[in-house]
Amino acid sequence: MVISFGVIMYDIGSECPAKRSLAEKDHAIALTHYAIVYARAWAADSINTRVRLAAENDRFHEVCALLREELRIKDTRIAQIAPQCRPHYGPHERMAILELRAARGWSSKRPTPSSSRRPRLQRG
């Protein structure tokens, strides 16, 4: 199957995706991103409120997904560094971390957001 976007043509299925060059993958991702942005721009300028809200919701979901991926990459990198060699934070950054922990409800027993967040019921 051949897909044509203007002058650029992609032959899908002729080659394993793992064998494609990095430039081709980057180009395909950029082209897909362009199509999504174009569709969102159309929806954001729509007269219909529901369409505008759906576009905004979709944009927020994408931003959250990108932030999660950035955090995953950062956490993986930091986990590979010995605790003694990890970056040290200044007083302003430490205060920002403490404020974030308080706002998110993290405690020293559960320092990561990936831990369970359900409150435990106390019987008594």
Question: How are the SSEs placed, and which strands pair?
Answer:
Blueprint: E1 2-5, E2 8-11, H1 22-44, H2 49-79, H3 91-104
Antiparallel strand pairs: 1-2
Helix residue percentage: 40-55%
Count of extended strands: 2
End-to-end distance, in Å?
66 Å
Strand order of the largest sheet: 1-2
Please state the structural category.
Answer: mainly alpha
Largest sheet, if any?
Answer: 2 strands, antiparallel
Rg estimate, integer Å: 22 Å
Quick one: overall form? flat
Strand content: 5-15%
Mean pLDDT over the full residue set: 75
Low confidence ranges? 1-8, 115-119
Report the total helices.
3
Number of domains: 2
The sequence of SSEs as H and E is EEHHH
Keywords:
about 55% helix; about 120 residues; 2 domains; two-stranded antiparallel ribbon; single chain
Walkthrough of the structure:
The protein is mostly helical and 124 residues long. It has two domains: 1-45, no CATH class; 47-107, no CATH class. Helix content is 55%, strand content 6%. The chain has three helices and two strands. The radius of gyration is 22 Å and the shape is flat. The termini are far apart. The model is unreliable at 1-8 and 115-119 (pLDDT under 50).
